[in-house]
Amino acid sequence: MRREFLFLSILVPGPEHPKRSLDIFLQPLIYELQMLWDHGVEAFDVSCQQNFKMRAVLMWTISDFPAYGMLSGWTTHGRLSCPYCEENTDAFQLKHGRKSCWFDCHRRFLPSDHPYRRSTTLFTKNKKVFDGPPPLTDGSTIFHLLGEFGAESTSYCGGNGHVPVYGVGEVHNWHKKSIFWDLPYWKNHLLRHNLDVMHIEKNFFENIINTILNVQGKTKDNVKSRLDLPLYCSRDYVEVVPPYRLKVARKTEFFDWIREDVRFTDGYASNLRNCVDYGQGKFTGMKSHDCHVVMQRLLPFAFEHLLEKNVHKAIAGIGVFFRDLCSRTLTAEGIACLSENIPMIICNLEKLFPPSFFDVMEHLPIHLPQEAALGGPVQYRWMYPFERYMFHPKKKVKNLSKVEGSIVARVSTKKPHTLLNITFHRKFVRRVDDQLAMMIEERDRVIPRMPLNCLPKLVERVGKAITENYRSKNMHICICIFLQIVRILCNMKVFTWTLYGRTTRSTPRKT
Q: What does the alpha-carbon distance between residue 7 and residue 2 come to, in Å, rounded to a whole number?
């Protein structure tokens, strides 16, 4: 996932959101993927010194949750927004909050003999849960259902030509047939679209910290939440301060600890003391990686002496879960432990926080261990590499009225230079330079006295030398000659060549 190996294949122009018409822009990419699968391309194997037919397959897509809906065709808002639970969800709409809620939707993931399943007071009042987890739908079944529902592909009906699919929002949430189903192997994939752990973790952290600090306008514990609380729960703090809210003195103590005692190594995280706002009692300017660090490294013990013991354990549990999920290596036993622990962790949070706290971002972690079992460590399936990659072309934009064109121009000029650096590795170039030491000394004596009319003869001699050595497979000598002629031309100020990350330019010596 290094930046040198990431390629910008398609850039969707703005400023309007493509929405359902994203498949229109993906048609060239899908065509090339079909060609790579059906016919392949000729490639050369350096280790075996022979040509072979190389084929390529698209493993999965990586995107945030709104883009998940554009890529998959499953609408990611509303009561049926979870792409795994589908129509088997227990989500509902709050009466006063008027938002979809996933409160008490996770007891079904617990073992059948767990005492939480029989509780009628800790979760939704007067309700017991006997159902099991929702079944998973394989790709062949989804492909068949899309045909039955009459979902159309955007490439055939146009970006705005979609007819509402029968039963959408009631029995399913399919709004189109994604263009990825045109790939012959797509229905056989076990993992087609990844839930982005980066944004899920960030949103989960913001909901927790804003509710604990009681940030006005962002806390989940508001007036409408208090009105909905007696309708669904049997709790005795409807009109008092809840146990998960920090008092003013303890909030100041927490901020003082962040400013004065918390230290990280250089480059590990930003300076969190600059993110503390005493006046409004909240964090400001925190990036996704800052939320990632605080969630996994500070949250497991930050509120040990500031909140009650049961509240601290519930909050620390979700931090430990994301820390174990984002570890560099995963084992089958570790993933099984994560799958067993995450329902219990979310149920412990449901015992404390109001129903309005649990939107779809608090529900999606229940499915992350399953994706880890199929796709492996999250470092290869989250948005961090792509967000950091796009930072570099964006910062080079010169024409703000033509942002897309500036990005394309930047990428087009950068890729050949990157390819040269990858092909002629730095260590190999150093070895070539050592072997060219005597040739360079000879060049320094001859080149200043060489007139420009000798340049065609020089190029002709070099061309013959490269051709002869290429035919005899002496690639090492070819590269030596190539680097030598580049240096010669640069010293003659014929052109300027950008090599090894710096611009090589020399002025002619006085004769």
A: 11
Residues of the domain holding 285? 86-136+193-380
Judgement on whether residues 302 and 444 belong to the same structural domain of the protein: no
Are the C-beta atoms of 328 and 285 separated by less than 8 Å? no
Do 304 and 216 lie in one domain? The reply is: yes
Asked if the structure places residue 416 within a domain, the reply is no
Question: Cis (ω within 30 of 0) for the bond into 15?
Answer: yes
Tell me, yes or no, whether 352 lies in a domain: yes
CB burial readout 42-63, b (16+ within 10 A) else e = eeeeeeeeeeeeeeeebebbbb
pLDDT-wise least confident of 117-131, 142-156, 262-276, 405-419: 405-419
Residues 128 and 240 in one domain: yes
Residue 42 lies in a domain: no
3-state secondary structure of 337: helix
Q: Please tell me whether residues 201 and 267 are part of one structural domain.
A: yes
In the chain, % of residues over pLDDT 70: 79
What tokens appear for 358 in the block?
């649990």
pTM: 0.81
Query: Same domain for 367 and 448?
Result: no
Burial 474-488, CB ≥16 within 10 A → b, else e: eeebbbbbebbbebb
Residue-level pLDDT at 373? 96
> 3-class secondary structure for 128-178?
CCCCCCCCCCCHHHHHHHHHHHCCCEHHHHCCCCCCCCCCECCCECECCEC
Residue whose C-alpha is closest to residue 106's, from 347, 360, 316: 347
439 lies in the same domain as 300: no
Band (147; pLDDT cuts 50, 70, 90): confident
> Is 142 inside a domain boundary?
no
pLDDT in tens, 104-136: 999 999 999 999 999 999 999 999 999 999 999
Phi, psi of 70 (to 5 degrees): -70, -35
- Give how many domains the chain has, as a whole number: 2
Give me the pLDDT at residue 416, please: 67
CA dihedral defined by 365, 367, 373, 375, rounded to 10 degrees? Answer: -80
Considering the domain architecture, whether residues 219 and 129 belong to the same structural domain is answered as yes
Q: How many CB atoms lie within 10 A of CB 313?
A: 15
